[in-house]
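Chain A, query sequence.
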Amino acid sequence: MNLESTYLGLPLRSPLVASPSPATGRLDSLVELEAAGVGAVVLPSLFEEEVEAEAITFLERMEAGSGVFGEATDYFPDVDLDHLGLERHILLVEEAATRLSVPVIASVNGRSAGGWVRYARDLVAAGARAIELNMYDVAVDAEASGADVERAYLDLVSAVRAAVDVPVAVKLSPYFSSFAHYAPQVVEAGADGLVLFNRFYQPDLDLETLDVTPRLELSRPGELRLPLRWIAILRPRLPDTSLALTSGVASGADIAKGLLAGADVVMTASEVLRQGPGRAAAMLEELVQWMSSHDYESVDQLRGSVAQHAAENPGAYERAQYQRVLSSWRR
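Chain A, predicted structure.
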């Protein structure tokens, strides 16, 4: 069975990619993921505000007391800065790129144009084979229109594309008023690939402390359907663009669905966090068994065969199935 695929122009041994998570943030688990058969790994996102906050906190603690006792500066300890912000991400890229044979993709999330470009360059210099722009942002400025937000994203993509010489993928959210219109604009701005979709993690309220608290819920297979629909719709519209499906991928059957819809690769994080890096090998074995039972010999053979332009009922990806879905409920 030929599981080889291509993503962002990079040849991959399999279509399963480990997406950003704590499992891709440690070298030991990255090695396990490679051994399990993934085609590439995407390292955890470098968040600009996190880098800045860590640097400020570190400097404040180092300088505490220096203005009170002049001798204090003589007692500053020699410290290892590799665990801080940007240095931590660069070190992980360097180690992963040296140790792994599969492509290492770095992820960036900034809040300023300069931050996006600077960190992307640094990560490429450290050995990243591609950059994933993690467009994770909540538009809360009441003065900014939808068009303003969309234009700002396009400008960021163009700036990063001009700054690096490796492929650039853009991880988008589904919250655009006309996604079919906007996705091609992202490609025109310089994206070599699109990752669908980003999951916005919502804050929760602690009823005891009345604090706003982070609470992570791993994705479930039902979440696969949204990116599945849009991969199928965009595949004929963007034939030369790499498409990656993410969210809700928990089995070999989910990988098969993504490929059938037209994805070049299918990404997973939650399933690896639940069951460990070795789960990737089982998922690929499930994919092989499904392909064998349905007479597919390669990933290329099945990719896009149920995309919208190739589906027996193209309207099923739009509104045609809405009534059927509602009436499909059985107690």
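Confidence is low (pLDDT under 50) at residues 55-60. The radius of gyration is 22 Å.
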